[in-house]
Amino acid sequence: GRKEGRKEGGKEGRKEGRKEIREEIRKMGNKSSTDSIKSRKLSLYLSGSKKDDAEKLKLLLLGAGESGKSTIFKQMKVLYGQGYTPEERHKIRPFLISNINEGALDIVNAGAAVGVELTNPAALEAAETLRMLDDKRIFTDDSVSAVQTLWQDEDF
User: Fold this and answer.
1) pLDDT by position in tens, the chain (length 156)
2) How far apart are CA 30 and CA 21, in angstroms?
3) 20 to 30 A from 145, CA-CA: which of 43, 91, 151, 155?
4) Which residues, 6 or more positions from 117, have their beta carbon under 8 angstroms from its beta carbon?
5) Contacts of 143 (CB under 8 A, 6+ apart)
6) Is the pTM of this model over 0.90?
């Protein structure tokens, strides 16, 4: 029994078994070295990332919703960063125009609420022009002229 099994497999069987083991070890070795290379690359990337992070100034803005955190961040970007890109400027332009037109009307209405009425006929007409705007997000010649007229009025 026992001797026959060895004889049947014999040296050839053992050689074949060793080849398989060597092949498995070789595969593991390649995988291990590939993993090692990936690990080294990741370590280098992370150490560089840590250096970059160490050079950055970080600021945590806390506050309730609508308290102005985004506004402060935007102001810091303008004052200390790269400023706005042309795409960002194009995006915010309608909001800025709307804020100017609606802000001018808010001042007129707040003044009226506390008894400071516009007395100049040109200023009254300018306020009415702003009230009648179909789209307060765009400047027209009339809306620009109306804001300028209000700005120069002493009651405004």
Assistant:
1) 444 444 445 666 666 766 766 666 666 555 556 777 778 778 877 777 777 777 887 888 899 999 999 999 889 888 988 888 999 999 999 999 999 999 999 999 999 999 999 999 999 999 999 999 999 999 999 999 999 999 999 999
2) 14
3) 91
4) 111, 155
5) 101, 129, 130, 133, 136
6) no
Other CB atoms within a 10 A radius of the CB of residue 104 amount to 22
Tokens standing for residue 25: 């070890």
Phi, psi of 106 (to 5 degrees): -60, -40
Tokens of 60: 């945590």
- What the block records as the tokens of 43 is 């370590």
b/e for 13-51, b at 16 or more Cβ within 10 A?
A: eeeeeeeeeeeeeeeeeeeeeeeeeeeeeeeeeeeeeee
3-state secondary structure labels for all residues of 14-83? HHHHHHHHHHHHHHHHHHHHHHHHHHHHHHHHHHHHHHHHHHCCCCCCCCCCCCCHHHHHHHHHHHHCCC
How far is residue 13 from each of residues 1, 20, 23, measured CA to CA in Å? 17, 11, 15
